[in-house]
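The instructor's notes for this session suggest beginning with a concrete chain rather than abstract definitions. Hand out the sequence below and ask the class to guess, before any prediction is shown, which regions might be ordered.
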Amino acid sequence: MLLWINGPFGGGKTQTAYEIRRRLPGSVVCDPEHAGFGLRRMLPPELRGAGGRKPLIEDFQDLVSWRQGVVEVLDLALTRHDGVVIAPMTVTDPAYFAETVGRLRELGHDVRHFTLLAERETVLRRLRERGLGRLLAYATGKNPGPRRESWAVEQLDHCLERLREPEFAEHLWTDRTTVPRTADRIAVLAGLTLRPNDEGALRTRLRQAGVGLRHIRLD
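After discussion, reveal the predicted structure:
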């Protein structure tokens, strides 16, 4: 089974994916964003926006190679891995959605798609909190590179509008719930059983901060 977790940038996809992995034995996270950033890094720095230049490619999802590569790798993972595969990835273009999620279904895989939604102010607050994580990374010697939060904010209204459409169901509103509870809801809807969440609040915050730091993009 593939759990594709969609949602706006800053909507909690990655945190939810790793919460499910933590509590679902045998599950793995396969992040399609890795393929996109790898393709982007193949470009010379000046063509990917270094030095304040306009990037040649605004969104790596526009690359056919990304869409085809994601399907190929997830098809391989689903075929060879004996467990649930989790893919946290924002996709708002209906054609690209058909070429990725739709194509995997055509290949015969059990794909459960969920969109995490929240009010605009909630997502903006989460993006600000993610920005604090970048400051911490810088203070500990990492170089977070150009801020992606500004790009995420620019895309926010479009994402929220598109992702509310019926084709991007199942919709889960997350304004008034926690990441562990969102993971629980996904598991119930997908017919999965997670281990009980026996973490304390402090440990949960520390672990989630670690997940956030590990997923700061360097370019």
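Then share the key points. The beta strands are 2-6, 28-29, 85-88, 111-117, 171-173. DSSP finds eight helices and five strands in the chain.
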